[in-house]
Amino acid sequence: MTTDPAKAHSADHIGAEAPRTRAWHDGKVEAEGFPVADVSEYIGQGLTVWLDLCDPGRDDLHVISEELDLDPVAVEDAVSAHERAKLDRYHGYLFLNLYVPHVDGGELTLHEVSVFVTDHALVTVRTDRGLKIDALMDRWDDGPELGEKGFAERPVSALLYGLLDLVVDAQLDAAQKLDDEADELEELIFDESFPVRRIQQRSFRLRKNLAALRRVTLPMREILNTLLRRDLGLVTKELTPYYQDVYDHTLRVAEWTDGLRDLVANLLDTRIALQGNRMNEVMKKVTSWAAIIAVPTAVTGFYGQNVPYPGYSAHSGFVVSSVVIVLLSVGLYLVFKKRDWL
After folding, report:
1. What is the pLDDT of residues 130-141, one digit of tens each?
2. Distance CA 136, CA 132 (A)
3. Is residue 326 part of a domain?
4. Would 298 be classed as within a structural domain?
5. Taken in order 258, 264, 267, 269, is the CA torsion positive or negative?
């Protein structure tokens, strides 16, 4: 293969981070940090190659597109923001779009990662630094040996497993943090001193985060199902249990997010019910006091008539009216108190 110096220079400047490259042979790292333009050369030598690009543009991806003969549609999806999580099959390779969630201070951030999977190459395209590449490389180094039986048959599949496992673990971690947020919200629901507006804001934010997390994790089941299909031929018999484990984790994330959504909805219903009960208590007390206040109003109104009546223009009339007011008011107060209306 002849290397175009201009192409190599352009490739060395791809993305916000310098491109990362690595090549394996028989499960051992044979080369690392080589130019992007040499990818096809290493593949031609029978090595398995990994290339990582961070925040590349369309022109930047043109280099790797030529190296691996990628379809323009797939390249367009790789640089387009907010693509849905999916797996597309092209002639000779697969394209995956994944999301790595991160929760900090109750705020959910989604980091998009696109992946090209060929027979001898794995290309990761990141929109930002949300996916920790060093952690991914550690998983490859500490995980199943690529030279082992089964892994050596499809080393790219073993690399893809490490990536999917890292992504799904991040989704599990995000679900756990949102679960903790739901637990805190549950405690605040019954705290009458905590402002209702703050509870409503946190509830809305939590529901929004759960909806966003569910939107990017739910398609993972279909992605893993497709990868595990025998007609695809990507996952060897030895790798099947590893992929099945990742699939089980995706089911757990989906069930977790669904359960949390139901929990938040129940918490909001509980809060509304508590507010309704509280309002009923207030109205009951206000009504009871209004009834007590109505007694002196009625008595004084009666004695305010300008016609003669027993005790008219006499001190005894004032005494009688005052006694009636006190007795009736105290009587009503005791009755309401006994019935827990006050």
Report:
1. 888 989 988 888
2. 6
3. yes
4. yes
5. negative
